[in-house]
Design brief:
The protein is of the alpha/beta class. The chain is built from 28 helices and 24 strands.
Length: 837
């Protein structure tokens, strides 16, 4: 039967579908003779109602973008995989089984085979991706251009993959990526898309490898490098000075080493010489991993490199993904390929692993060229090269240096806490049995499911929703209907949870074989406040096969005694005093705050938090307590109506300043301070009554974001806002300028200290704790290091709004030896240090 029009195809399709027992609710639309087909997943309500695909909200979003590129629905063919409405995610109203889906896929192939001129296919979403290409995972494959995809009759077509537009409506952060993909689709159908082949040399002889290193060193181009690891050892090092040719110097086969001991030693020495000679031209993706691994594992030091593509993309688009798979599909003509990394482990040829390593190098080279060009066009190149990349070597040294652990203290803590956790678990069981009347009932306190059954089904506690987290447990505890036996359960659970977390997170974490604990510092780590560092564990293992390291920025104070300076070395510390609050004061132009903070900076006895409490509650400054909680053991006079450990007005003012600056409402203020909702509401109203500038500033920020979708911090870091401007999003938007500025300020302090000619060669930065830094130096040089740190910490910050330069005081401490002569993190004592000139 010959089919020559959309109408004829529709009639034949419906007949075939119904003969297979399928319900056709929406068929297809558009030009039968078109070269382009757009394939969505399944019809929505509007599509079922009209019988036409992509006419609802998701269709509107698609055509809105495609029209910018001159693509109109009248000139393309439009269809879905399933011709009836089906459910996705957790929606179970219209389920579809595998058999039905396979029939729809087969019918789609039959349908497309009748389009006489079809050359290009745009697939929208997972279902379409799998039906046309056989691949799964649209988050990975979006942005990929797949040449020579075959449809039902074996005819090759070019396929471009992107999200279902419904995802864009749900998560506006994806819209920019969606636009990138559709722009790519336009280039494909205009014939402006060229796939670049690449050549990867693998299994080189010793002579070939040495010659390639010579070639890379003499090349005038940038050189992309990448390592891969197997069994906790370096397996290969890839190098490419273009985006089309690379060599993977693989040190092993699947089962044995490739070079003699002498050859491998010479190769490693040659690699070190190459890195030293070519470091200013080196390019890497996530250089923090490669350089720390090579330094720690292989004793090969990679000096400061030219460009880290992950960090460059983060500067451009902080809210987008930054993995090489994503960057490859955004910036090159190559499709997603990262699944190839582990194919050899499942019985494949290990040579594919070496080719993968070389492909990483070629793609990193291509991505770097585009990213550097884009940084320059956006006028962000100076910020990237002179600030972001300048900080990386300092962070690498901190990671590799690590923090020495006192094993005796650690083991004692482990033993004591292990016993205490068991005892607290038993006390929890006893409280549960008393409250429920069930003598053998022992729910697992680490299981959210079992806790939910206990708290909501057995005890019928009232919180907000069914969360079992600490915040909701506090709501249950304070609820009027909660009886004392049930409060006893919650107290026991809270104490167990606190001790168990400390035991499992901070005391039993695996350390490296040299007795040190390490963390990776992530320059892309805090999405809502780019510029702030985050930290995480390491990707290598110790001799016992345990993955080591952890977040060292959020250590509880009682863990500090485990971390010690090396013998003969001391610790120097500074912390930025009330830094975020000061930055908010300057950004929001709060005159009273600026005056109070400046007075506090010049007069060390003046307390800006007491001044705020005085203004909020109409109490004379001298009558506001100097402490945060009443403590009878410290001789505090407890006013009438207050109890021991109750919070003071100073504490309330300080907590308001930390939370209400960022649009926190009274209910959250209540839960974070322990105040009643009524008292929190009074504090909230008083706070905003005396600081009307805050809400004006919020309004200005919101207007700026709505107009430009862009904010800049005081150091010039850009934040493109991709999300919908919900109340939650506005909280992070308001926090961006102060938090990000502070993060970049601390990063600047780090590299300025280590590049200061007076900084000792045998000193280094030891830890970053958000707004504080600790240095490690020979004991007689700690004061010198502290004075240099203080100089850069107290360097003026220029807020571009006409306010005077902001100087944030740096409070300094030094490590004091304990009775055994050991200097511990817990032994830091305040000292007065003059800033270096």
């Amino acid at each position: 039967m010959s089919i020559n029009s959309t109408a004829e195809l529709k009639a034949a399709f419906i007949e075939r579908a119904r003969s297979s027992g399928l319900d056709v609710q929406c068929t297809f639309d558009g030009a039968f003779h078109a070269e382009v087909a757009i394939i969505a997943e399944a019809p929505g309500d509007r599509e079922v109602e009209t019988g036409r695909p992509l006419v609802g909200g998701s269709g509107s979003k698609l055509w809105e973008v495609l029209r910018k590129y001159g693509i109109d629905r009248r000139n393309v063919y439009i269809t879905n995989v399933s011709k009836r409405q089906v459910s996705f995610g957790n929606d179970r109203r219209n389920p579809i089984n595998k058999h039905e889906l396979d029939v729809w896929k087969a019918l789609l192939q039959w349908e497309l085979s009748h389009l006489p001129n079809l050359k290009y296919v745009l697939v929208l979403g997972n279902l379409s991706l799998e039906a046309i290409t056989g691949h799964t995972g649209i988050n990975n494959w979006r942005g990929s251009v797949l040449l020579d995809t075959t449809i039902g009759n074996g005819r090759p077509v070019t396929t471009v993959c992107t999200y279902n537009p419904t995802m864009i409506l749900r998560d506006p952060k994806l819209e920019l990526t969606f636009t990138f993909d559709l722009n790519k689709f336009k280039k494909v159908i205009d014939g402006k898309w060229t796939y670049k082949q690449f050549d990867v040399h693998i299994n080189p002889t010793f002579s070939d490898a040495m010659d390639w290193l010579d070639k890379m060193e003499k090349s005038s181009n940038g050189v992309a490098y990448d390592i891969e690891t197997i069994a906790n050892e370096t397996a290969c090092v890839g190098l490419a000075d273009s985006d089309v040719e690379a060599m993977s110097i693989n040190l092993r086969t699947r089962s044995e080493n490739r070079y003699t001991l002498d050859e491998e030693l010479r190769l490693r020495r040659r690699l070190q010489a190459f890195f030293k000679a070519a470091h200013e031209r080196l390019i890497a993706q996530n250089n923090m991993f490669d350089s720390t691994w090579l330094w720690f594992k292989d004793k090969i030091y990679v000096p400061p490199i030219y460009c880290d593509t992950m960090l460059g993309h983060h500067v451009l688009y902080p809210q987008l993904p930054h993995g090489l798979g994503y960057l490859t599909t955004q910036y090159t003509t190559r499709p997603f390929y990262k699944d190839e990394k582990d194919e050899w482990r499942e019985g494949g040829d290990i040579d594919g692993f070496w080719r993968y390593n070389g492909q990483d190098c070629c793609n990193t080279h291509a991505v770097a060229t585009s990213i550097v060009s884009e940084l320059k066009s956006q006028k962000l190149d100076k910020f990237f090269f002179e600030h972001v990349m300048r900080a990386q070597p300092t962070l690498v040294r901190m990671v590799v240096g690590g923090v020495l652990v006192d094993q005796d203290v650690r083991n004692n803590l482990k033993d004591e806490l292990g016993t205490r956790v068991q005892k607290l678990q038993q006390e929890f069981f006893e409280a549960v049995q008393e409250a429920t009347g069930e003598p053998d009932y022992e729910p697992n306190p680490k299981s959210p499911k079992q806790l939910a059954e206990l708290l909501f089904t057995k005890l019928r506690l009232v919180g907000r929703g069914t969360s079992t987290n600490a915040e909701n447990r506090d709501r249950m505890y304070n609820h009027a209907a909660t009886t004392e036996p049930k409060r006893k359960v919650l107290r026991a659970l809270n104490e167990y949870a606190k001790e168990q977390k400390f035991y499992s997170t901070y005391v039993t974490t695996a350390i490296d074989d040299d007795g040190r604990l390490r963390c990776t510092y992530n320059q892309t780590g805090v999405q809502s406040a780019p510029g702030r560092l985050s930290s995480s564990g390491m990707l290598w293992r110790n001799a016992d096969g345990e993955q080591t390291g952890m977040n060292l920025q959020n250590q509880p104070e009682r863990a500090y005694s485990m971390y010690i300076a090396d013998p003969g070395y001391g610790l120097g510390y500074f912390d930025m005093a009330q830094a975020e609050a000061r930055l908010v004061g300057w950004f929001a132009k709060i005159e009273s705050w600026m005056e109070q903070f400046e007075r506090a900076r010049r007069d060390g006895s003046y307390d800006a938090h007491r001044a705020l409490a005085s203004d909020m509650f109409g109490v004379p400054y001298n009558e506001v307590p100097t402490f945060d909680r009443y403590d009878a053991s410290k001789g505090h006079t407890i006013p009438e109506g207050k109890r021991d450990r109750d919070v003071t007005l100073r504490f309330i003012a300080k907590r308001c300043r930390h939370g209400l600056n960022y649009r926190m409402m009274p209910d959250r203020l209540s839960s974070t301070t322990g105040l009643s909702l009524a008292d929190a509401t009074v504090a909230y109203r008083n706070y905003h009554r005396i600081t009307p500038e805050l809400q004006r500033w919020w309004g200005e920020l919101e207007a700026e974001v709505r107009a430009t979708k862009t904010l800049f911090n005081a150091y010039g870091r850009r934040f493109i806002i991709l999300e919908r401007l919900s109340p939650e999003a506005l909280e992070s938007i308001v926090a961006f300028k102060p938090q990000s500025t502070l993060g970049d300020h601390i990063i600047r302090v780090m590299y300025m200290c280590e590049s200061d000619p007076r900084w000792p060669a045998d000193a280094r930065l030891w830890l970053n704790i958000h707004d504080a830094l600790i240095c490690l130096a020979p004991r007689h040089k700690v004061k010198l290091c502290l004075s240099i740190m203080k100089k850069y910490a107290e360097a003026p910050i220029i807020i571009p709004n006409g306010t005077p330069p902001l100087i944030i005081p740096a409070d300094t401490k030094m490590g004091a030896p304990d009775d055994l002569g050991v200097i511990r993190w817990s032994g830091l004592k305040s000292v007065e240090i003059e800033a270096a000139h």
